[in-house]
Design a protein that fits this description.
The complex is a heterotrimer of chains A (355), B (238) and C (293).
Chain A (H helix, E strand, L loop, with lengths): L16 H7 L7 H21 L4 H26 L7 H19 L3 H23 L5 H20 L9 E2 L10 H24 L1 H11 L1 H6 L4 H27 L1 E2 L1 H5 L1 H15 L5 H20 L7 H16 L3 H25 L1
Antiparallel strand pairs in A: 1-2
Chain B lengths: L4 E10 L2 E11 L4 E5 L6 H9 L4 E8 L2 E2 L5 H4 L4 E4 L11 H8 L3 H4 L2 H11 L1 H5 L10 H13 L5 E5 L7 H16 L3 E6 L2 H7 L2 E6 L2 E7 H6 L1 H7 L4
Parallel strand pairs in B: 3-8, 3-9, 6-7, 7-8
Antiparallel strand pairs in B: 1-2, 1-4, 4-5, 9-10
Chain C lengths: L2 H26 L9 H19 L3 H23 L8 H23 L4 E2 L3 H4 L1 E4 L2 E4 H23 L1 H11 L1 H6 L4 H23 L4 E2 L3 H16 L4 H21 L5 H15 L17
Antiparallel strand pairs in C: 1-4, 2-3
The complex binds adenosine-5'-triphosphate (ATP) and magnesium ion.
Adenosine-5'-triphosphate (ATP) sits at the interface of chains B and A.
Chain lengths: 355, 238, 293
Amino acid sequence: MKSDPELISDETSEAPALESAASHGHGLRSGKFSWLAFGIGMVVLGGVAALLLNQPYYLSLGAVGLLFAALASAWNIIGGYGGQFSLAHAVFFAVGGYSVALTQVNWKWAPWPGLLLGIVLSTILAALLAWPLFRLRGPFFAIGTLALSVVVLALVTWMPWTGAALGLQIPFNEQPITSRPAWAFIFLGFLAVCVAVSLVVSRGRLGFYLVAVRDDQEAASAAGASALWVKTLGFAISAGLTGLGGGLYVMYLGFLDPPTFLDAVQIGAFIPLCALIGGLGTIVGPIIGGLVLPTLQTYMRGAFSNLPAGVSEAILGLVLILVALFFRAGIWGWLTSLVRRVMSRRAKSDERANI
Amino acid sequence: MSGILEVTGLHSGYGDLEVLHGVDLSVEKGAIVSVVGANGAGKSTLLGTIAGVVRPTQGSIVIDGVDITGIAAHKVVGHGVALVPEGRKLFPFLSVEDNLRLGAFHKAARSRSKATRDEIYDLFPRLAERRTQMAGSLSGGEQQMCAIGRGMMALPKVLMLDEPSLGLAPIVVEQMFGLISNLASSGLTILLVEQNVADALELSSRASVLEQGQITMTGSGPELLADPGLQSAYLGIA
Amino acid sequence: MGVLTIIISGVLVGGMYALIAIGLNAVFGVVRVVNFAHGELVVLGMYTAYFAWTVWSVDPYITAVLIALPLGFLVGLVIQRFVVQRLLDEPLMQMFATFGLLMLLQNLFLAFTRGEPKAVRVAASSASLDFFGVSVSVSRLVVLGAAIVVTIILVVFLRQTLYGAAVRAVSQDRGTAALMGINVKVLYMVAFGVSGAIALMAGALMSPIYTASPALGFSFVLPAFAVVVLGGLGSIGGSLIGGLIVGVVEALSGYFLDPALKQAVWFTLFLAVLVIRPAGLFGRAGSEEIGQR
Ligand SMILES: Nc1ncnc2c1ncn2[C@@H]1O[C@H](COP(=O)(O)OP(=O)(O)OP(=O)(O)O)[C@@H](O)[C@H]1O
Ligand SMILES: [Mg+2]
């Protein structure tokens, strides 16, 4: 965002941390190196999961963390790279969930074609919604998507064929995977898919245009990028992955009820929060945020169980405010800037040594 | 050296980017002083720094004996410096009258607001006719008049005009320069930034050339007009 | 139940939406910040009234004017000064921060009240007037009246005074407004203060009608956004009318369709308006774009 000289009043404008956080998503570590890092990262996560195999508590914590890491990565495509604060991703999450649950409960489908259906439906829905929603910009887009998710929650709760407020229950003997450890690895696979797609998008032309549109829509449009197309594509890809996540989550839980899938705060806002706390517009950031935030929340709920309900969520809210104020680049952005600072200091002292 | 506005050794810029590298400028009372230069030379940055919207890193700005270096933009106007920004920057959804009233927002000018406004309406009858119209719906020339009028409402000791001829038809440009010279002859001190070098130099008593953030030439208007280096660089005369 | 009864009850509910939305509009329309926590401020007003009523036996209507107004002004000021002011050029971070504020306040309410509903019940809670054969709740009438009074005060201020013009100028171009000698930072703080004051006052006035609970705030903020957008950004009169429209639409759809769908109906209406005319019904076309960059 280029600011007018007139806008810089008595407050010196702080350098947008967001941009610097995003910029090292491009250039520098391109192509093969990032795929190598991706492979190593997944193997490491898999190894950690394997080590936790006989620790069911930590394993299930890890499973949920991996799920949210994946969801945050998916959201990050449109929210981080594209800068569109979508609060509607709960809707796509639910579309995926209902696709699996409804086809299985009503028509005895296996969950796998249901998953595929969920991906297709949420992608199509996102593409259709993109036209009206992307007429809205900035805060209006956020409010519009929030309103959308509230409408969908109301409709789903009201309609009888979605199971209304009670939701849907998948009989235990029809759940193909009931082993808890298996789920950690399934969600890891889901994370791998989301990160791989993010890598392809962010290293490719779409990612470049998404960032361009985020930073300056007018300039990007003038340079020939159709802002609507770019955002629609990013939104649809992001939504498709989120739909897949919703389908998997239903299989994991074995049931589906509207608040679990459509809550505007617990899902709709929570996913973006994971991405923010990890680091918006980066590959690694949302993974970290997704792993950390749900774990932290569960941990705090346990640790503060003798305090009144709400304390741990209040702390989460406070953390969020502080991150927005002081750590805009998130955990990953903070780490990388720390590393860069150390490196440049070392480079300087090397120079001095050479003289 | 006792101009009403004295700029000495001014450095300023945006973040890590330094745009002005030690600019000196002196504006005598009642004169038109112009600063000319190519795109990106730093002319708007110079005016912006004087007006307090860009932070100086070194040097000083003194208006009528008062050091105003680095004070906040909203306080500068009270010391007698008004900026008519590049591209006019009127409040598009406010009426002409409200735009003018806001020009006299600061305390020293507020009490005389009505009288000044009437003088401005006398000067620009077109504005008087359109006083209730939204400023955003004025023509380009009218908008520039309104912006200048809004600057004058502040009763400034120095009125700074950033490219008043920008985007105007040649005939309107001529009227605009006529008007500026009238304003000066009525006693107003003007610091003018222009790319229309020939016109600007013609009506200036003194002028400076700004190149890449430094003043490279200073002299009277006619002197600079006659300078062969300046002619080839800015007037297209080989 | 006749249609007239439904419309009247819709208008009364609409008065509440309008009052909440007007406060929201003071920041959304002027500072251009989406304050997701606005509904929590309303709830804070309700708890304030409850506290004053149980501890000092102060009537909620007295609390509304003497305690909620100044306290709300202070709260708004603090939010602006310590959160929003640092994020002026960061629209995405503003939304994260005010969402964080929403979570913080909502859960603090939960922690402090242990989730117990808090109800203020005074004479006005059950009093009603007869209006052409329809019984009208006095306490709701007070809220509607407050919405009208606040609208008139703000509209006169914005249209007729120099400071009002300054507020409008800042909402259109804050950089240039500073050149006029307007202290934008202070003006933003005042705008947030006024917003907070109206929110807490609204909460105190609503306390005899509603039972305060932590989740209530979130259910207020979306209708309020809808009203602001319907009525037009920065248009106070538009918020009043927008609030009444939303109230009536909600009442009618609750009666003719299904009470469970009443929100869905006007949200859809809201989305449609947002898409067709982002400036709102009474906002100036294009005005939603300026001041955002
Ligand atoms: N807000 C800003 N942030 C960063 N750099 C800026 C900003 N405004 C101007 N610059 C840079 O400062 C330099 C000088 O710009 P300035 O606007 O002062 O030039 P100018 O002489 O007024 O040019 P013009 O004739 O085109 O108006 C340019 O290189 C420009 O890119
Ligand atoms: Mg310029």
